[in-house]
Amino acid sequence: MPIKEAINAKGASKPIGPYSTGISYGNLIFISGQIPVNPQTGKIPESIAEQTRQCLENIKIQVETAGSKMDDILQCQVFLTDMNKFAEMNSVYSQYFSEPYPTRMAVEVSALPKGVSIEIAAIAGKN
Description:
Blueprint: E1 4-6, E2 22-25, E3 28-34, H1 48-65, E4 73-80, H2 86-93, E5 103-108, E6 118-125
């Protein structure tokens, strides 16, 4: 039976509620939704491009701490407060992945924590 373990990434933001930012379970890694807060400065970038980049960098920290890499991400869930920003988000997102790309869902939501424009969650495999 696999063991459920929290991912405690150094340099990553700490959870602000009763949840883990990441869980490793067998050969899978589950990354909670990451908002674009720089874990070192606490600052949030302005543009959707930079917010997307920060979300993905936050995911990268979690995935690498768990012993995997961005190419092992199987699925991403993207939450945007404005679907009109999808193309700009997608331009940055595409820089983080190669074929075969992870599956993805992208939805528009009315609001996100701290007033950010994007949140991204992920599921990755582990070799």
